[in-house]
């Protein structure tokens, strides 16, 4: 377990707004990546925004006002029923930790990336706070909740 944790921390790197070192327990990063408060509304915006997460490119959420939702990744309408916030967090941070064959990009990894423009080398796709916003939004996605 220590070896896995060390490898993950090396892959993830430190973020300017990360206040808590991510630790994996089972298939989850239980503690938030930052102590700053997260917003589900901001998470929804990140989920659909072309300038940030753009999660709708691959995922569908029923009732979400976003055209052209994808179907490459799993449907996330009730993901809060299936996954805990910690499980969601790990999958957003770097899904390849759980599945080496995943096509989901690592949103909070700095090392071992391919085809990264020089201007973005050493940067994460999303900040720790942006990931927490997404976790907040997706955690609220439950069956029977609009």
Structure description:
The protein is mainly α. It has one domain: Cytochrome c-like domain (Cytochrome Bc1 Complex, Chain D, domain 2). It has helices spanning 2-12, 40-48, 79-82, 85-94, 128-139; strands at 24-25, 28-29. Helix 2 crosses helix 5 (128-139) and helix 4 (85-94) crosses helix 5. The chain is globular. The protein starts with a helix and ends in a 7-residue tail after the last helix. Residues 1-16 have low confidence and may be disordered.
List the topology elements.
Blueprint: H1 2-12, E1 24-25, E2 28-29, H2 40-48, H3 79-82, H4 85-94, H5 128-139
Antiparallel strand pairs: 1-2
Number of helices: 5
Helix/strand order:
HEEHHHH
Summing up helix and strand content along with how strands pair, one would put the structural category as: mainly alpha
CATH superfamily: Cytochrome c-like domain
CATH topology: Cytochrome Bc1 Complex, Chain D, domain 2
Number of domain units? 1
**Helicity, as a percent range:** 25-40%
Mean pLDDT: 85
| Low-confidence blocks of residues | 1-16
The percent range for strand residues is under 5%
Shape: globular
**Span from first to last CA?**
39 Å
Strand count, sense and barrel status of the largest sheet are: 2 strands, antiparallel
């Amino acid at each position: 377990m220590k070896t896995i944790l060390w490898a993950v921390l090396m892959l993830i790197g430190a973020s300017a707004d990360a206040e808590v070192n991510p630790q994996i327990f089972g298939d989850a990063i239980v503690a938030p990546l930052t102590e700053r408060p997260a917003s589900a509304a901001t998470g929804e915006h990140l989920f659909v925004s072309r300038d940030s997460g753009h999660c709708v490119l691959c995922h569908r959420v029923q009732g979400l006002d976003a055209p052209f939702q994808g179907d490459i990744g799993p449907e996330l309408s009730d993901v809060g029923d299936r996954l805990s916030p910690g499980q969601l967090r790990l999958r957003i941070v770097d899904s390849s930790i759980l599945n080496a064959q995943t096509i989901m990009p690592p949103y909070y990894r700095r090392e071992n990336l391919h085809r990264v423009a020089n201007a973005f080398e050493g940067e994460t796709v999303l900040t720790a706070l942006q990931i927490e916003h997404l976790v907040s939004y997706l955690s609220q996605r439950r069956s029977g909740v609009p």
